[in-house]
Amino acid sequence: LINCLIHFYKRQNIQQLQLENIQQEDYIMSRAVHREYEEEDIDLDSLLEASCSQHEDSVMDIDSILRPLSDSQQEIEANLDLRDQKIRDEIATQEEKRVRSEQEQVMIRHKGTPALIKRKPPGLNLFQPEQLLTFSMTDLSLERDFGWTGRKRLEQSGLASSFVERLVGGQNVLMMVRYLAPETGQNNMVANEEEFHSMVDYVFYLSTVCEDQLTFSVLSKCLFDLLKSCGHPWHVTTSHLLATLLNLGARDQVLASEQFYQMNLASSGPVLPQFYTARLDKRQGNKVISQQSRLFMLRNSVQLVGDLLRLPNRTQLGQNTTSVLTMVYLAITVGQDQAVVDTPSITRSISQLLHSLLSLLPPPSHTETHLQVMAELLSAGFFPHHLCPSSTSTWSYTSLPAYMSTAGNNHPHNMLTSCSLLPPHSPSSTCWPTSTHSWCWG
User: Fold this and answer.
1) Which has more pLDDT, 123 or 1?
2) Contact 351/276 with Cβ under 8 angstroms?
3) What gap in Å lies between CA 13 and CA 34, rounded to an integer?
4) Three-state SS string across 221-252, please?
5) Which residue has the higher pLDDT, 175 or 435?
6) Cβ atoms 303, 348 nearer than 8 A
7) What pLDDT sits at residue 84?
8) CB count in 10 Å sphere of residue 162
9) CB-facing half-sphere around the CA of 268: CA atoms within 13 A
10) CB neighbour class for 9 (10 Å; exposed up to 12, middle 13-18, buried from 19)
11) Could you tell me if 327 and 241 are in contact, meaning their C-beta atoms sit under 8 angstroms apart?
12) Which of 354, 389, 428, 333 shows the shortest CA–CA distance to 123?
């Protein structure tokens, strides 16, 4: 219909031009007749004949208008059609672009842009590489450090004194394990509960300072066989983990600060074993280890404690929530060390240890309160710069908000790493205080 109207409009324009030409000729002729009338007498007959002839010419001109268009007229009309089509296409293209732009603007306004933090934790300077081991595999003594009193009994049973010295003096721990026969539950080296405690503690601390995987595997299996085959009570405690970490060079200002535990848990920190404090008093320490060996020992120690927690009746941490939270603090703080934070082999063992610890918390009716205390302990209550300024030497507070430097808070990315150490399905990973999130986004 539109094309028909356009065609009719074009035909009308052509006809209008022709009519205008005819009218202009009529006007010129009438002016000429008028001048002739003024100069000469009017001949009515001739005037009537001229009028009739003009009428006939007008009729003929209208007939010519109704005739089909010539080739030149059709070419002009085709060119006009092309121009009209081009104009329509340009208008349609502009309208399409406008509509598309409006749709994109609407999508941009309603699109939720996720706010992400680029994970790049600086970590804590927790372990001191220059610190000597307080105890090592070669200088741990079953008698002197752990009070074992079975030497005389072994000698009276017919064993030579030199052989007994090799068994209990730490000269050949693999021979000791073979003679101990821990899987049987009956041996001449453990005669009562006190000697059982001494032997288990001795094997445990030996396992934490093993420098090769074979020796660690033998000693850890010996430890578990002793615990499974003997009915004497023994429990893994926070003191075992703390002494192991401090021996590997962890800063006691961060892990054993009485002020920190009093402020956050309203209790004193874990008590160090007697043999360890005695060695500290004597400043006994004579072995330097490499960073690689330290990380190897740390991984095995964390894994060993996590496995011990999963043994039935070998932990009493569940009876004391403070002890659970203390061990959680020790594990997560270790996981933020600059050498550990991006070492998956260690962080995985830490995450498994945390999973075991969180399972020891009281029933669900009280869990929420304990998890909130734990979240505050690890974030809003942890001020590493005030506990030990050297522990925060891995970053500069000038890159953080001013209030964090004043308070001595932990780095936001370190706190984010703490969340990643917690088990994914644990509700504790979603209960961090609001202030922690504000630090992260700051």
Assistant:
1) 123
2) no
3) 31
4) HHHHHHHHHCCCCCCCCHHHHHHHHHHCCECH
5) 175
6) no
7) 87
8) 9
9) 4
10) exposed
11) yes
12) 333
User: Average pLDDT in the 300-326 region?
Assistant: 89
- Structure tokens of 291? 């960073």
86-103 confidence digits (pLDDT tens): 898 899 899 999 999 998
Q: What angle in degrees, to the nearest 10, is found between the helix axes of 193-208 and 291-309?
A: 140
User: How many helices and strands in the chain, by DSSP H and E?
Assistant: 20, 0
Angle between helical axes of 434-441 and 412-421 (0-180°, round to 10): 120
Query: 319-326 contacts: CB < 8 A, separation 24 or more?
Result: 321/361, 321/362, 321/370, 322/265, 322/267, 323/237, 323/238, 323/270, 324/357, 324/360, 324/361, 324/370, 325/265, 325/370, 325/373, 325/374, 325/377, 326/238, 326/261, 326/265, 326/269, 326/270
Residues in the chain: 442
Question: pLDDT tens, 26-85?
Answer: 666 666 555 554 444 545 556 555 555 555 555 555 666 666 777 777 788 888 888 888
Tell me the C-alpha distance between 369 and 375, whole Å. Answer: 10
DSSP H helices, 40-70, are 44-66
Which tokens is 302 given?
């964390």
Tokens 């035909």 -> residue: 11
> Which pair of structure tokens corresponds to residue 335?
């996981």
> What pLDDT is recorded for position 439?
39
Q: Which amino acid is at 417?
A: T
Please state the rounded mean pLDDT for residues 365-372.
71
Contacts of 203 (CB under 8 A, 6+ apart): 219, 222, 223, 226
